[in-house]
Write a structure and sequence with these properties.
Blueprint lengths: L1 H21 L3 H25 L2 H19 L9 H23 L2 H21 L13
Helix pairs in contact: 2-3, 2-5, 3-4, 4-5
């Protein structure tokens, strides 16, 4: 009984995220990636603290994918030093998240969360009308 309720809740959450993404502009989509990555890192850290290896693996995988297949892919490396630097930062974060998961290293999770937080704050301060050209435009 509770399993079905959890499945329905997860489906509702996915639908809410998908609906928000469909109506979002490029700036909002990147903000959603930041938020998702931070949430996944927090979930991985909490799962690690309580010894729930399975939940940690799911959350760590989600965080890595959001960074590696979301934030990193959004960067246009051809626009100069800033683009390349952001690309390298996201590559580093993905590697550190993998390390954090494999070595049960909460400090690495905290490091990546802090790095994402700094970029996320700067991104929020830019606002949707001043989005830098180092990001690929959403099609």
């Amino acid at each position: 009984m509770f399993g079905q309720a959890a499945l329905a809740t997860n489906a509702y959450r996915r639908l809410a995220v998908e609906s928000a993404a469909l109506g979002a502009d490029s700036h909002q989509l990147i903000a959603m990636l930041f938020e998702g990555a931070q949430t996944a890192i927090s979930q991985a850290r909490a799962a690690q603290a309580r010894g729930d290896i399975s939940a940690k693996a799911v959350a760590s995988s989600r965080a890595i994918r959001l960074v590696d297949e979301g934030l990193k892919v959004a960067v246009d490396r051809n626009v100069g030093e800033m683009g390349e630097s952001l690309f390298q930062l996201w590559s580093y974060c993905a590697r550190r998240l993998l390390h954090a998961h494999l070595k049960h290293d909460d400090g690495a999770y905290a490091e990546v969360s802090a790095l994402i937080g700094q970029i996320e704050s700067a991104w929020a301060a830019i606002g949707p009308n001043g989005a830098p050209t180092t990001l690929r435009r959403a099609a």
